[in-house]
Design goal:
With 318 residues, the protein is an alpha/beta fold. The chain is built from ten helices and 14 strands. Strand 8, helix 4 and strand 9 form a beta-alpha-beta unit. The two termini are 20 Å apart.
Length: 318
């Protein structure tokens, strides 16, 4: 069972309007709501793939109740820790030209609530085959919250995939997750620059000792290990909504980590699932036909760039 952790989930609301006019009054044509948060998107993709998955994290208030009910309606099993604060909402106002987002801050989590979650997480490690840790940290949690969970999972022999940003990403990388999946902009923010491919590989190796898979939008994925770099790009660009592409990629990586899939096969699968997510209208979903077609036509990942000086040239897929 793959366990997905979402510490700062949300209820995603989308308002459809004809034209968004700043400072104006608008009649909303349709309102849609769905579970939000990167880890919940990962869980929904895995559920759609038919993979055994359980979503966990922190939920509070009536908004948290609604998120839990919507997940259950989609058939996603969950085991959340209840908190006193109200789960946040995100609002996207969509017109014919673009979308404008309004993100509420997350609820403040108390030390006692965090301790309860850590205890729940320990219990869930028993049946877990892989754990994914995704998204931002709500107020009140320590910056090394993900690092704490990675350490617990590692001690239990459970592989981890980390997908976050900023100081939480840096602290998490120091705990040596089995795999990390930042995007190129998140890495650039950590490095205060956006280096070229060889510079990126060298910089990543300075931050992490485990494999790091860098998502680069339409340019595809770059997997950087201690002694190799693997690269895979989609065969054709897919137009649509890129919001959930990274979460679909994490779902594919988690499944591949569980199955010990080698890089030449793992990266094309992750690229295909991410492309299929772009073709879907909302995050947490994917277009099955685009996934099938892209997976069938994507070339195997290839070793790229020079080895680090003095590096071991043996091929290491994990």
């Amino acid at each position: 069972m793959i366990v997905t952790v979402t510490l700062n989930p949300a209820l995603d609301l989308t308002y459809a309007v004809d034209t968004l006019v700043p400072h104006g009054t608008h009649r909303v044509a349709t309102v849609t709501e769905r579970p939000g948060g990167k880890g919940l998107n990962v869980a929904r993709v895995l559920q759609a793939l038919g993979e055994p998955v359980l979503a966990t994290g922190l939920l509070g208030g009536a908004t948290g109740d609604r998120v839990g009910h919507l997940l259950a309606d989609e058939g996603v099993r969950s085991s959340f820790v209840r908190i006193g604060g109200e789960t946040r909402r995100t609002v996207a106002v969509v017109d014919r030209a673009d979308a404008t987002g309004f993100w509420e801050p997350g609820p403040t989590v108390t030390p006692g609530e965090w301790s309860l979650f850590v205890a729940e997480f320990r219990e869930l490690l028993g049946p877990a085959t892989v754990v994914t840790l995704s998204g931002s940290l709500p107020p009140g949690l320590p910056i090394d919250a993900y690092a704490t969970l990675i350490a617990l999972a590692t001690a239990a022999g459970v592989p981890t995939v980390l997908d976050t940003s900023g100081p939480a990403l840096l602290a998490g990388l120091r705990a040596t997750p089995s795999m990390a999946k930042p995007n190129i902009d998140e890495l650039g923010a950590l490095l205060s620059r956006r280096p070229g491919p060889q510079g990126l590989a060298d910089a990543v190796r300075g931050l992490a000792t485990g494999p790091v898979v860098v998502s680069r939008g339409s340019a595809g994925l770059l997997a950087i290990t201690a002694d190799e770099v693997w690269e895979c790009a989609p065969p054709v660009a897919v137009a649509g909504n890129p919001t959930g592409a990274g979460d679909a990629c994490v779902a594919a990586l988690a499944r591949g980590l569980r199955d010990r899939t080698p890089w030449p096969a793992l990266l094309p699968d992750a690229v295909a699932l991410a492309a299929a997510a772009v073709a879907a209208p909302v995050a947490g979903a994917f277009d099955a036909e685009v996934y099938r077609r892209t997976r069938a036509t994507a070339a195997p990942a290839v070793a790229a760039l020079a080895m680090p000086e003095g590096g071991n040239r043996a091929r290491t897929h994990r």
